[in-house]
Each structure stands twice: as structure tokens, then as C-alpha cells.
Amino acid sequence: MLGIVDPWFFAAVALGVVVVSGAIVLVRSDRALREARSSLRRSAAAGAERDRRDAEEQAALDVLRATLGSGVIRLDRGLRILAATDRAHALLDRAPGTLIGRSVMEAFLDPSIEGLASRALRRGSASGEVRLTDADGPAVAVRAARTPGETVWLVLDDVSELRRLQRIRAEFIDNLSHELRTPLTTVSLLAETLQRDADGVGDVLPARMRERIGKIELETGHLVQMVSELLDLSRIESGGTFDMTDDLDVARLVAASAERLRLFAERQGVRLVIDVPDHVPPVRGDGARLGQVVVNLVHNAIKFSPDGGEVTVRVRADGGEVRTTVADHGIGIPRAAQGRVFERFYKVDRARQRPEIGGGTGLGLAIARHVVDGHGGRIWVESTEGQGSAFTFALPAATAAPVDR
Ligand code: ADP
Fold first, then answer.
1. How far is the CA of 187 from the centre of ligand 1 (A)?
2. Angstrom distance (rounded) from CA 132 to CA 343
């Protein structure tokens, strides 16, 4: 019996096993199928969501591109144009799409922009300004920035109108200052003579009258100073160039300029210390303008020092630069104002000056910054309120390798 039953039994068992495992496999594969389907559905949904977000992003970028006043260009490492907005094409006077694939030089026809883009590639960012097409063409400010993928973005802004308005303002100030200067100089000279006459006649004039004459002289002096500073600034700002033909001995120039204020310092009870070395590398520049910078800084240092204070003027050669520092122990400048003192007409607080010296124009440091910038130098201030200020300007030494700026 067993001998007969066995094969069938085993066959049946085997069949059962096959059926059961088939069923299991079927059940498993059915589940896998369902899982695969739902995962497909999920990833399809995620893909659709991604597509929707991409489309939204693209639409937002299109709106940004259409409304942005700036033109935007993207360059590859070889400084060829990968992409450019319509505005960039319009600024460069090209038909839409025709800039793609061109080199920066072909697009701008100006080597300075190529230099600017390669500086951005090396250093991360750079900026400059260029007149497109010809001398009367649009003035375009260009800012360049490197992206992490080593491409370069160029952002172009048309600043022609701004420059036109600046020119009108400079011309207006220039004309006005010229018109004011002649009568003011006459009034100032008359006031000076009147003061001398009053001093000469001793007690004949009442003290009150002498005091008033003194005030007239002081205030007309301020007006003359203000007008001449306004004239200077408008000339420098409207692109007045500096006479850069001389190799200057900055140590001697600074000492001589500071010396001019010794009498003023003595009158204010301030000790003036001039500390310059015998030799510093020569600096290529405009001696008259740089002398004016020193006078402005030393004048301020004395003006904002207390009676009995000390002002130090120091020159040092430092790493291819010649640095001049004017330090005082006066009232100092609050941190928030330190970035603004080089703006024209900016004054920290009109009430801070010593009343006997009177107010300034708020132009001295703006002029100083323009002059130093025009020499390829830097000017900055370090100050602690209540403890004093140190203004430093650094000029590139003529013998040093040209500074890559
Ligand atoms: P101003 O003719 O008013 O001196 P400046 O442009 O030379 O014009 O200076 C701008 C302002 O910066 C001053 O009005 C003053 O508030 C501040 N300032 C300049 N130098 C000093 C200094 N050495 N100590 C304190 N404040 C200073």
C-alpha cells in the first residue's frame, strides 16, 4: 500500500507546495506590484509637483527679467556669453539673442570690461563703469560676480541719467561758487582791514563793536572757505584730473602742509607733533591736492581736540604704500557715523564743535576721499568716541609693482 500511495502522496504534496509557494509568490509579487505602482504614483506626483515648482520659478524669473531695469549676462570661464537678458541686449544695442556665444570683448568693444570680468573670476567680484558705443553713448555701470560654478554674472545698469544730473549739479555749483567768490573775497578783505583798524585805535572803539567786527571777519572767512571747497569738490567730482607728473616725497609734503597749521594749533592750545622719517619711497601724484588733504585732516584734528590736547601727524612706508596718519585725542566719532564722515556735507553733530572755532563746511573729508581715490590710494578712520580719532590715507609707492585693482 505504501509503495503505491507514496509517489502519489508525494506528488500531491509537491503539487501542494508548488501551488502554495506559487500563491505566496503571486501574493508577494502582487504586493510588490502594488507597492511599485504606488511608489510610481508618488514619484509621478512628486515629479509633477517639481515641474509645477520649476514652472512657477521660471515664470517668476521671467517676471523679474521683464521688470528688472538691469541687464544680466552670464559668462563661462573663457568669458564667452552663455546667457543674456533682453535688457542686456538692448543696453548693448544688439538684437535679442545675438549676444549668445560672443566674447565679452565682442559684446562691449571695451577691454576694461574684459579686465573686470577676469578680475571677478579671480577674486570673486569687481565693478566699473563704461561708456558704450562712443563718448556720448549711454554710461553703464557694470558689477561682476563669480558664481560657485566658476561662471561670472555681469549686472549692467544704465547710469546715463544719473551722470547727466550730477553734471548739471556740478555745473550749477561751479557757476554759483564763481559768482559768490569775488564779492565774498572783497567783503572778507574789508572785514580783515576793519579788524586791523579797530585793533590799531585801541580803546577808542567800544568793546562790543570790536567784538562784532571780529565776528564779521571770522564768518566771512568761513564763507570764503566754504565757497572755495565747493568749487574744489565740483571740479574734482566732474572728472577734474590730477596732475600726476611729479614723484613726491610724501614725508616732506606732509610735514610742510601740517606745519602751516602750527599757529592755528597754538591758538587753540593744541600741541602739534610732526613725526616723519628721513626717507620714504616716492609717490606719483599731485602735490597741491595731497597737501590740501593733509591740511583738511590736521585742521579737523585740531578743531575737535580739547584745549591742552595733542595732534600727531605720522608718515610711514608700509608694504609698497606710504601711509600718513593724523591722530588726535579729541571727542572721537561714534561708530555709526564713521562710515558717513566721507560723504559730502555730512557732519556728525553740529553742536560738537568748539564754538570759538565755528562750523566747517562738511566738505573737507569728501574732497580728501576724492583726491586719495584719484591717486589710487585708500583713506579710512579709526575712532573711539570720547577718546580720539586717527585718519589714515595710504598711497601706492611709485617704485612698487603696479597694484592690481
Ligand atoms: P567739516 O568742515 O565739518 O569739518 P569734514 O568733511 O572735514 O567737514 O568732516 C565731516 C565731519 O566729520 C565733521 O563735521 C565732524 O563731525 C567729523 N569729524 C571729522 N574729523 C574729525 C575728528 N578729527 N574728530 C571728530 N570728528 C571729526
1. 27
2. 29
